[in-house]
Amino acid sequence: MSSAIDPEIKTSFDNNDHELDSSNMSNNSPSQPQDPDPEKQSPVQTNIIEVPDGGYGWFIVIAVFCFNVATWASNSAFAIYLAHYLKENKFEGATKIDYAAIGGIAFGVGLFCAPAIIYFIGITGPRTCIIVGGCFQFSGIMLAAFSTKLWQLYLTQGLLISYGLAFVCIPANILLPQWFRKKRSLAQALSASGSGAGGVMFNLAMQHIIEIKSVKWALITQAIICAVVTGIGCALTRTRNEHVKPTFQFYDIEVITKFGFWIMSFWIATTLLGYVVILYNLADFTRSLGYSGSQGSIVSCMISVGVFFGRPTIGQLSDKFGAVSVAMWAHLLVAIFCFGMWIPLRNYASAIAFAIIVGSLMGTIWAVLGTIVSRIVGLRKLATTLGSLWVIIGIFGTVSPLIGIQLRSSPGAGQEYSPIQYQHPAIWCGVCYFAAAMSLWIMRGYLIARDEIAEEQNSHMDNGELHIKVPFKKIFGKMFVLSKLRKV
């Protein structure tokens, strides 16, 4: 009998093992009557996917670290270009809305095609997809250096860079969950800190090059750095698809009809609506206090310093206490600092402190996204689900800069700067992060309630447990209790 069993799948029926969970209900014979009460369903066969939790997985951490340097870190440097464009008015006829729109396009438009990119990954593999993305990104940044008209900037620093980011970061984000389980949040946080390390480099270096040379040479340098770093990550990329057997579809109807998917979508939407506003505007906010562009770039750089040191800490805490719980508190703290520190902020030292504190917390989503998604839908449906969620990220990442720049007020008559220009964006970001924290609180109650039902069915999270129906009354009741079965 043992020869007929897939060597990568361990089958267990031990009702006392808290780590197990149920496979698809389709394993039940159709001739047997099904109990409509999910809490009374009989245990079903459980399939556990073998995960090494290390080994070559640490090289995958380095690879994804490189991809984050080349994508999100590179993208964060737009704050420097945005502040420069707003001051110099380099492109004839351009308004602050145009520049904000370009930043939004660069962040999110390429992600609209995430389901198609996921399907492309299924056909060609992640490495080919990343190479395509690297070519898009290099072309976009290099051509932006030679752009002289606004429409050219829309196509290069906006559209081409956006597709480069999407074709690199989407396959990168499905790699790590295949290699880690117990240390999954830590591995993701370490790789996500690449956007912090790269952000420090890009923000300081590009500002310096702009000052001593020009925007053109800053963009040329950035293009070369991104191409080299992407190449290093690509050389290290490996998958465990033969073991995990993931699905690569445009969408999964079973996933998008479940409560877990929609509460994740709300969390992502509200987070992005605040995250991009803070990311892109702290450099210009510093200038609104009367400081120089160089000082603004340093404040923007401090976000990346916070990211570099904060995300590994978030990852360790998530593995110890649960990704959803840690993310909930991190989002709530960002809201508190936006209300309590950003609104009354009036000096350079406080701006640096605010950037470091908020930078360490506001990007928690990138440290725990893969962990939370795999927790809710399982490893096999991870790629397809992320494809749908990247569309949400793209939509709200695109509109966020427009909202932020519209909320920014103009200085009074005869004034070049005003310290209250960013009062409304600060309130907006606080509200968004508070809403995100509340959605994570509800998600936490949902998972605790579902875990209790899954425990009675002898199930394991690798299979997603999407078939388990959780009553809303039970969800809200479990928001106020500690999880006794699994980390949430």
From TrEMBL:
Entry annotated with the keyword Cell membrane: no
GO cellular component: membrane
Biased segments, Basic and acidic residues type: 7-21
Transmembrane segments: 56-81, 101-121, 128-147, 153-174, 186-205, 217-238, 259-283, 289-309, 321-343, 349-373, 385-405, 425-443
A single MF term (Gene Ontology): transmembrane transporter activity
Topology within the bilayer: Multi-pass membrane protein
Protein localization: Membrane
Keywords carried by this UniProt record: Membrane, Transmembrane, Transmembrane helix
InterPro entries from the UniProt entry: MFS (IPR011701), MFS_trans_sf (IPR036259), Proton-linked_MCT (IPR050327)
Superkingdom to which the source organism belongs: Eukaryota
Biased composition annotated in UniProt, kind: Low complexity: 22-34
UniProt key word Lipoprotein: no
Segments of this protein annotated with the region Disordered: 1-43
PANTHER family cross-referenced by the UniProt entry: MONOCARBOXYLATE TRANSPORTER (PTHR11360), TRANSPORTER MCH2-RELATED (PTHR11360:SF315)
Family label: Belongs to the major facilitator superfamily. Monocarboxylate porter (TC 2.A.1.13) family.
Name recorded for this polypeptide: Transporter MCH2
